[in-house]
């Protein structure tokens, strides 16, 4: 039987032109760590200047120093909690004083934990909805005047959790479904001003808190086999999608949810031996001999 082929993740800098985002300013909630740190780093390698936002001022400042050092561009740390719109207005003001404008916004700040419904208090549910959904709205509200002025672009980091039921993820699933529809509403309402709004929905991305939380130890191989492209995502995969959606190449794309998951959402038959059943189709008929269902 042939071995499953694994397409390697490549950095966006090997595909797109080097000065793609020269003179652009990006405002990234959650940019101090995780996926949004890597996305920010990539945008800066293309020349963008970045304001990164997060709750922990020390960690954020260290991240800004590292990003500037690694990319040769400029990152600015603006401590803020997306649940507090005043802190976002202050971060926008500071960004305008520092960089003079905002062209792109990434709504990436998110909170999550695994908990069964019975383990979720009303406050716990509200906490996740407030960070993920209200936080996205607050970020849009605080940046809107500037984004309209620049005819800029929003990207919201959503998820694929809510396309089907996932145990212990009720709050985040509900919140991300809201983020998707909020983005669509923005696309319709802001399109006539030249503003675009899209979501990126990452699948399982290796080396993230989300993957650590959702995949139990030893489960990595099983998960990988269910992903049609046969590997978990890398942060590069999400960064590449972000570069495309912010670029002029995506000029007529708004109100879309770009699922970046190696095809995972389309695989729905975990009882089949996958990928063996497609790599060795001859054995396929044998599987169903005597099937009763
Ligand atoms: N299971 C059930 N309830 C939980 C919980 C868990 N694992 N963790 C927190 N809660 C509840 C708390 O008990 C509290 O509710 P209560 O007052 O009724 O007891 C409520 O959620 C708020 O918790 P608190 O810790 O005060 O909120 P916070 O604003 O300080 O932090 C998070 C919220 C989501 C940021 C925090 O839980 C966290 O750091 N999570 C991991 C990091 C993360 O989510 N990263 C994003 C990756 S996608």
Write a brief caption for the model.
Helices cover 43% and strands 12% of the residues.
Give the biggest sheet.
7 strands, parallel
- CATH architecture descriptor: 3-Layer(aba) Sandwich
Sequence of secondary-structure elements: EHEHEHEHEHEHHHEHH
Q: How many domains make up the coordinates?
A: 1
| Number of H- or I-type helical stretches | 10
Question: Termini distance?
Answer: 28 Å
Strand fraction band? 5-15%
What is bound: which ligands?
Answer: coenzyme A
Mean pLDDT: 95
Which class in CATH terms?
Alpha Beta
Shape: globular
> What is the H level of CATH, i.e. the homologous superfamily?
NAD(P)-binding Rossmann-like Domain
Strand order of the largest sheet: 3-2-1-4-5-6-7
Radius of gyration: 20 Å
- What percent of the residues sit in helical stretches (DSSP H or I)? 40-55%
Q: Please mark out the parts with pLDDT under 50 across 5 or more consecutive residues, or reply none.
A: none
| Fold-level CATH name | Rossmann fold
Organism: Malassezia vespertilionis
Keywords: NADP, Oxidoreductase
EC number: 1.3.1.124
GO cellular component, one term: peroxisome
